[in-house]
């Protein structure tokens, strides 16, 4: 089935080409590093992976469930519980985070994405059903406009009654944003998918050949080919597979909701988080990426690992992809680091590091240095 870009709630912007940030290797869990953490009323920085000790713990207003860093020191943070977007200055030498300005946009923003030269910032407002476009030129913060997310109600009358844009993805050329909307499922088969997060494939290429999308309602991973046209992208679905893999269903299929998706830099391994499964802990599924040529790519389920917590909302890699960092927002260990073996499988029996507490509900984790 042909999937046109606009039919999956995609907003286009012609932008400059991307600039790659240099890698900063992580050699061991005890090596000094800095990981940005967001949880209700706090923005924190952990300066080691082992135990996640906080060198900075800044009290803030609301819920900073997503952040975007304009290197080296400008941090943009949403407040998912309000309509505020705040610009902070972060100083990793003096261990300080200072608020510089705060502006009003849409309510319920859950994701931020820069354009290629960091002069524009796209905010997806799940709660409001809109997309904010911010001017961030020279480290500023100004709302340019708010765009309603298009779409028709989906099969789930409770969760898909109105648009819910979840994530903006800048394609490798820097010309297009793809925005995943929980509701806009007109050309996604089968209907009721609930698009949440996605990744372009492959990483490091000038153009994408595929787009891989995770659906939180159907708990499916969908694979599309990507074709570049003059002013738009074409998507054609070529695979649909369960986020749980064969023989590993959730204990509660009615509540299960797939969450995060991350692609390793080697373009051979993909990881998807499974939330609210009803099991004692939730899980992350590992898929191997197989392809015979640039068109026929397929995902093969390898296995799953415990996240040692409940509702893994976000995952990200440490530098060099050595560790998978997980933020569980609803119980168990809040922060978890799992080591990736050379074959891409996860060392799940002995997590490298965990941090938890009864009121610790992190929603964001990302290594920044």
TrEMBL record:
Region (Disordered): 148-170
InterPro entries membership: Cycloisomerase_2 (IPR050282), Haem_d1_sf (IPR011048), Lactonase_7-beta_prop (IPR019405), WD40/YVTN_repeat-like_dom_sf (IPR015943)
GO molecular function: 6-phosphogluconolactonase activity
Superkingdom: Eukaryota
Keyword check for Signal: yes
Keyword Signal: yes
Cleavable signal peptide: 1-18
Keyword terms: Signal
One Pfam family it belongs to: Lactonase
Gene3D superfamilies per record: YVTN repeat-like/Quinoprotein amine dehydrogenase
PANTHER family assigned to the protein according to its UniProt record, in alphabetical order: 6-PHOSPHOGLUCONOLACTONASE, 6-PHOSPHOGLUCONOLACTONASE-RELATED
Family note: Belongs to the cycloisomerase 2 family.
Protein name: 6-phosphogluconolactonase
Annotated source species: Fusarium oxysporum f. sp. raphani 54005
């Amino acid at each position: 089935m042909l999937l046109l870009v606009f039919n999956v709630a995609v907003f286009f912007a012609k932008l400059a080409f991307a600039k790659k940030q240099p890698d900063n290797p992580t050699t061991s869990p005890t090596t000094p590093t800095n990981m940005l953490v967001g949880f209700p009323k706090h923005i924190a920085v952990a300066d080691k992976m082992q135990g996640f000790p906080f060198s900075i713990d800044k009290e803030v207003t609301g819920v900073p469930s997503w952040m975007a860093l304009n290197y080296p020191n400008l941090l943009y943070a949403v407040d998912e519980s309000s309509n505020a977007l705040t610009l902070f200055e972060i100083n990793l030498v003096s261990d300080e985070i200072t608020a510089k300005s705060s502006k009003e946009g849409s309510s319920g923003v859950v994701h931020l994405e820069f354009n290629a030269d960091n002069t524009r910032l796209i905010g997806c407002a799940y709660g409001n059903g809109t997309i904010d476009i911010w001017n961030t030129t020279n480290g500023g913060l100004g709302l340019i406009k708010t765009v309603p997310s298009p779409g028709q109600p989906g099969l789930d009358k409770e969760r898909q009654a109105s648009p819910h844009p979840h994530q903006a993805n800048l394609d490798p050329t820097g010309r297009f944003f793809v925005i995943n909307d929980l509701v806009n499922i007109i050309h996604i088969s089968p209907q009721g998918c609930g698009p949440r997060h996605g990744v372009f494939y492959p990483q490091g290429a000038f153009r994408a050949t595929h787009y891989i999308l995770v659906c939180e309602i159907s708990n499916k991973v969908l694979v599309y080919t990507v074709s570049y046209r003059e002013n738009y992208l074409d998507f054609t679905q070529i695979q649909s597979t369960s986020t749980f893999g064969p023989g590993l269903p959730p204990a509660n299929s009615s509540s299960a909701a797939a969450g995060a998706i991350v692609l390793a830099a080697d373009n051979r391994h993909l990881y998807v988080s499974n939330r609210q499964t009803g099991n004692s802990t939730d899980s992350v599924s590992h898929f191997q990426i197989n392809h015979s040529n640039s068109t026929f790519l397929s995902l093969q389920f390898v296995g799953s690992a415990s996240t040692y917590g409940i509702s893994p909302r976000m995952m990200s890699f440490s530098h060099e992809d050595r560790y998978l960092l997980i933020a569980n927002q609803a119980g168990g260990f809040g922060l978890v680091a799992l080591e990736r073996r050379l074959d891409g499988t996860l060392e799940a029996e002995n997590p490298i590091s965990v941090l938890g507490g009864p009121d610790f509900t992190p929603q964001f984790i990302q290594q920044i240095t």
